[in-house]
Design goal:
- The structure is a homodimer.
- Chain A has helices at about 5-15, 20-25, 30-45, 60-70, 70-90, 100-115, 135, 170-175, 220-225, 235-245, 275-285; strands spanning about 50, 55-60, 90-100, 120-125, 140-145, 155-160, 165-170, 190, 195-200, 205-210, 215, 230-235, 250, 260-270.
- By secondary structure, chain A is an alpha/beta fold.
- In chain A, the strands form four sheets. In chain A, strands 4-3-5-14-6 form a five-stranded mixed β-sheet, covered by helices on one side.
- In chain A, a hairpin with a 2-residue loop joins strand 9 (about 195-200) and strand 10.
- In chain A, helix 1 crosses helix 2 (about 20-25).
- The interface between A and B is large, with 58 and 58 residues.
- Chain A binds a DNA duplex through helix 3.
Amino acid sequence: MRNWEAMEAFVEVVQQGNFSKAAAKLKVSTSHISRLITQLESQLGSTLLFRTTRRIRLSEAGELYYQNCRSLPEALSSAEEVISTLNQTPVGNFKMTCSTTFGERYIAPIMNNFLLDHPDIELDFHLTNRTVDLIEEGYDLAIRMGAMKDSSHLSRRLCNRVEHLCASRQYIDQHGIPHTLAELSKHQCLLGSKNHWLFQENGQRKEIKVASQYRSNSGVALLDATRKGLGIAQLPDYYVNEYLESGELIPLLTQYQYPYSGVWLVYPKSLHPSPKLQAVCEYLIENID
Amino acid sequence: MRNWEAMEAFVEVVQQGNFSKAAAKLKVSTSHISRLITQLESQLGSTLLFRTTRRIRLSEAGELYYQNCRSLPEALSSAEEVISTLNQTPVGNFKMTCSTTFGERYIAPIMNNFLLDHPDIELDFHLTNRTVDLIEEGYDLAIRMGAMKDSSHLSRRLCNRVEHLCASRQYIDQHGIPHTLAELSKHQCLLGSKNHWLFQENGQRKEIKVASQYRSNSGVALLDATRKGLGIAQLPDYYVNEYLESGELIPLLTQYQYPYSGVWLVYPKSLHPSPKLQAVCEYLIENID
DNA sequence: TAAGATTGTTGCTATATAGCAACAATCTTT
DNA sequence: AAAGATTGTTGCTATATAGCAACAATCTTA
């Protein structure tokens, strides 16, 4: 770990012409400056400046060292300033992901409006039902169904979604209506990305693993299979609301329906969230309904 | 005083890909690295890198900061290297001063030989009888008659010179020979740069202030005045030896002659003398006789 | 699948450090 | 010419700091 502070002190001493002014500028004591310079000269094995009690003069080595170091403090300041301006306002590239249908139907319109208000933000919006590794793949934000527990992420509830367990009239006519969770094992269960269904029994969250001969990470495919009577599926309200209303699909086991299958904003853990992330999150929460 | 070490730690972490390797490279503990990064992020008010326990990834702010800072460690290293090579061997510009005649007659020939052996040294040799301010005017070395006491300089004896008090035969015939120091006040005293003469009485150094109607900072002028019988002068042996031998000038008060009126190498105080200074001093002392 | 290895973080403490005050050496001013 | 102001240096001490060890979270390997 090299002696950066001594270098900065030296450069400042040269520019100010004496130790006292340099100390004042750097907001440290002159004794500190004095010791830093002495130490620097020791490390370099070279006298950098000759000093009387009143005046200083650069040695040839000091002149060389100064010429090579004078730009460094400015460079660091400029680097810090860039970050500072980045912190002032939401700007930059924003990479986010969301499940396909929910994204297309709800998130994309909100984000597009957001971009109209924030022309300095570039959006990179990946719609996929794959659960991506945020940090690994450099995402700023994911919108996930159901909260995830992960030591390196934080999450924030975006809105509440109900997942409806349902089947087509045709399927019910053939297989009957299940009345308990246990009865599900006798039915054709159509699974999505997760290999369990979420219910609530006596106020307790309950994850039920069901055997399945059908899986798809596409809600659209799942919905189609359900409508064609291939089995029972648990689908978010925005897929099935219209079919439940029309009576094409029948809600099942509603007494066990989990009330808060939330939609979450998930982002990498950070003590200092970027303005762009904050702005996007606020805007989404504000405009989701 | 800005946080240079944290910046260096950050750059190293980015380049090494993790905290541990960066710590090893910088020869500090990982805990130190961890705290430096945390502290840097706090100061900048921005998360620079997202970290799982196993992997890190730059945030947009981190990427920007890295791009702006990556060259700084190299720059400092290179500055240090320049000084290091400067320390290896005597090189560079060497500015020195000496009294005119002594310089012309003794020092210049030695320095010219020195330059033949050291083509990398550029000499700036000022011959003057003015007592220059070494530090103020940027001199590396002065050659002075008589040691000087000064808190901001060091000195080293180059050789011994005897200052002969003498007068011309013609002057002695007219004014007689002084036999005591007190008698000098009755004589015409020709003064050089200093306004006193140096003697020894009972082993004690003794500076005698003499009234004078003639002063010159030029030894040549003083010698000429002495030879023409204008008065008594105290002159270094290299001015008068030939005339004392020929009998043209008569030595006076030899029992009071100060034995060690030395010639001194005087240079700005420094804990780490430059190789060029050391080389010049050694060479002069080696070759003065 | 489980045990071991490796990662970054945090509490505790020995160590290093920075500031205060006193000092010596000039320079300035009256 | 003398007193006061200002400079850089140094001893002392309160404070900050860096390393150790323990830890939690993950990845690797058998």
